[in-house]
Design a protein that fits this description.
Layout lengths: L1 E5 L5 E5 L5 H7 L1 E3 L23 E5 L5 E3 L8 E10 L9 H16 L2 E12 L12 H6 L1 H14 L3 E6 L5 E6 L2 E2 L2 H19 L4 E2 L13 E8 L18 H21 L5 H4 L12 E3 L6 E3 L10 H4 L2 E6 L5 H17 L7 E2 L8 H6 L9 H10 L1 H5 L5 H15 L5 H11 L1
Parallel strand pairs: 1-6, 13-14, 13-16
Antiparallel strand pairs: 1-2, 3-4, 4-6, 5-6, 7-9, 7-10, 7-11, 7-12, 8-9, 12-15, 14-15
Helix pairs in contact: 2-9, 4-5, 6-9, 6-11, 11-13
Amino acid sequence: MVACCGDLSGKVRGKAFPLAQMEKRLKQGVGWTPTNVQITCFDAIAESPFGSLGDLVLIPDPSTRVSIESGEGTPKENFVLGNIRYTDGRPWELCTRSILEAALERLHRVAGVTLYGAFEHEFQLRHRVSDVGKAFTLGGFQEERHFCEAIIAAMREAGVTPDTILKEFGAGQFEVTMGPQKGVTIADHSLITRELVGLVARELCYEPTFTPIRDPAGVGNGVHVHMSMLDSSGNPVTYDPNGKHELSDVAGKFVAGILKYLDSIVAITAPSVVSYLRLTPHRWSAAFNNLGFRDREASVRICPISDISDIARAAQFNFEFRAADATANPHLALAAIVHAGVQGIEESLAVPEATQEDLSLLNPEALSERGYVRLPQTLEAALQRFQDNATVCGWFPEGFADVYLKHKEGEIAYLAGKTQTEICKAYEGVY
């Protein structure tokens, strides 16, 4: 069994122990080192305030246990997610799962609602570099039917509700989606699904990549987070037919908060150097802090409702955050989104208008007059906006912002002197 956690780089790191020790480890955990948090995606150690000092424990959460059959004749795949704690049991300030739990607790305390949602992931198979004429085709899917069906089977066996899997637009590109869950499980299932795609791919000697972009001239891989809210009885409370854009009061303020603080949290939701090659106009990603009504260029999109479905409109209604990718830790990214939304509720922000035009055609003065902000165009600029926003930094535990900035500075330093092509290649290899 491997006890795992997602770290600041979006990587899943862990420590194995004999399965027979499971009950013991649920109480005692496995030893962990504070400076592990500063291991970048390139396996360099960024400047750390901890040095060689300190001891922590990673405590597994049995509700997240994954146990599935791996390849024929090989041991079962067993892993479990957990929380990093001090040796006296207190949550560690840099545990990403604990950070999300705190954000969700804030949402419930302020608004009395529970988050309900799911992640969508795009990725590419690295050996399929010249797929032409196969975008969204049955034939493109059929060529990788075994791979796709194996992923769905693994998700089901792992307790993740499969939704869809499809051949996407780009060369060798696929998208896998999961059914909605409540609270921290939303991010747990995102992390588990990414690992399952890798597991299935390795059995086929495939190399998948979730990198935001392989080639600046090519198609990007995004992460989309669908969200709605439930009241204490489990009833959906996101939809209001009389609300602006059909958003309820609480949902409208939540969305407004995301958009107000988006340029300061994108360093967390899209935290790689190449993320900003993707977050540009006309890539069906996001470039401005705008709300869109069924607009896939918007940072937050209000999703359509099917009038022919037998599911109630209120239960279908959700909105989608689009300024994210898989270089982000899903727990940390969702925590930033939730905190921004709760801030909007606390500030009682008004729901903005949904854009109906190409914002890239407006000059900076016109954008500013209408309340729109161009998202940062480099990771360095995104980190600066995060650092400069005292409200945003204050959402996180003491010391988090400084450690996170140093982590990302270490990632950037590794890429110094490399060409854009070499940087894309580096991220393709590690994500």
